[in-house]
Amino acid sequence: AGKVDQEASENTGPKVVYVPPPPPEEESSIFSHYATGINFDKYDDILVDVSGSNPPKAIMTFDEAGLCESLRKNVTKSGYVKPTPVQKHGIPIISAGRDLMACAQTGSGKTAAFLLPILQRLMADGVAASKFSEVQEPEAIIVAPTRELINQIYLEARKFAYGTCVRPVVVYGGINTGYTIREVLKGCNILCGTPGRLLDIIGRGKVGLSKLRYLVLDEADRMLDMGFEPDMRKLVGSPGMPSKEDRQTLMFSATYPEDIQRMAADFLKVDYIFLAVGVVGGACSDVEQTIIHVDQYSKRDQLLDLLRSTGNERTM
Length: 316
Fold this sequence. Notes:
Number of helices: 11
Distance between the termini: 28 Å
Number of domains: 1
Strand order of the largest sheet: 1-8-2-7-6-3-5-4
Low-confidence stretches: 1-11
Number of strands: 8
């Protein structure tokens, strides 16, 4: 009860027929709309806490990250100037094969922090180009709580993997199941998905886990808040899922309550690295928060005035 599942069920309601438009294929389109909005100058003074046995040394530039030429070019095209704190520490930790529990705010650059070392390792190990198969066996699975977030991660993965043989695929609710399955069966090295849809496609026998090397749980605290802990535990316990000793598990969370600590102990190797960037549970430093005192019956008028004053900018 109380589970907030944003994945439309196709078994309990009308058949979902929606098919999303295909993502852009042209280089200019892939890199034009998703350039980073990170304010790099604000990161120099952010506190970073790294704990665990023998954590790898942080990098200071992307040149120190050991990225292949294709990835390095894609980083530059994406507008990344220098690594953010979570990237400075997260990239070498993941590249060293260590499990990671990272507390970092949305907007800290954490998506690139896990995608870049995963892509680099897959390419360095000569991952086979994905191709059609009735059962796909991805090397990496990335889990996030909402379709909006997982689609954003997928677009980042496509951007960084541009010009390589690595094929990311995204699965989430509200989309025709047949379309989703066809997209997966075309080839899938990195599978991005929401918890319920991942369980569904694994349960249908379309995705095997025998080749899985990386499991990423992003915004783990939100997944718990939305009632996804049973799904997350079911995913980790799926038949064929490598044990935590035989896979690399990466968890990201904005907060670090007891239930996240317990999950980290259950899902991660005993020698995992803990990384905290900035104030755990704090707001992103790029977000300006303003409190406006208004009378109870003036709130609507005040809100409309604020919306009109923003011009044509995107507003939520």
